[in-house]
Design goal:
By secondary structure, the protein is α+β, with helices and mostly antiparallel strands. The chain is built from four helices and five strands. Helix content is about 35%, strand content about 20%. The protein has a five-stranded mixed β-sheet with strand order 1-5-4-3-2, with helices on both faces. Helix 1 crosses helix 4 (about 100-125).
């Protein structure tokens, strides 16, 4: 929380967060031109993203113990590289979402979970995410 300046971190094991990291073999999840992107805050500017913006969430590899995520996967480096992101996906595991208040973190977690669920369906149907 020190690196992000956040006051709240929400960690979930949602089915959509787990699945999308298996469907996308990249180091980031990216989606644009979806309404719910407006519910996500750019952590650098403090402003909400717009419909035209691309939401980018880094994906790190899972570890056998959650405390190893900081050391073995380079989570600290990931937070520096993706300073605008309010979340990190953990492959085959779940997602961490953070915000300046618990209310903002909760709203963003809900919006991102919706977008991840949508992305799973879009990927199944061969639709582009951007």
């Amino acid at each position: 929380m020190k690196q992000t300046g956040s006051k709240c971190v929400i960690h979930t094991h949602s089915k959509a967060a787990n699945l999308i990291t298996q469907l996308i073999k990249l180091d980031t999840f990216e989606i644009s031109h979806q309404e719910y992107i407006k519910g996500v805050t750019d952590q650098f500017t403090g402003r909400n993203l717009s419909y035209e913006d691309t939401l980018i969430i880094p994906i790190i590899e899972n570890q056998s113990q959650e405390e190893e995520l900081l050391v073995r996967t380079g989570l600290a480096k990931c937070l520096r590289t993706y300073r605008r992101s309010c979340a990190t996906l953990v492959r085959n595991h779940g997602i961490f979402v953070w915000g300046s208040t618990w209310e903002k973190a909760k709203i963003m977690a809900e919006c991102i979970d919706y977008l991840l669920d949508l992305a799973v369906d879009m990927t199944k149907h061969g639709l582009p995410l951007g």
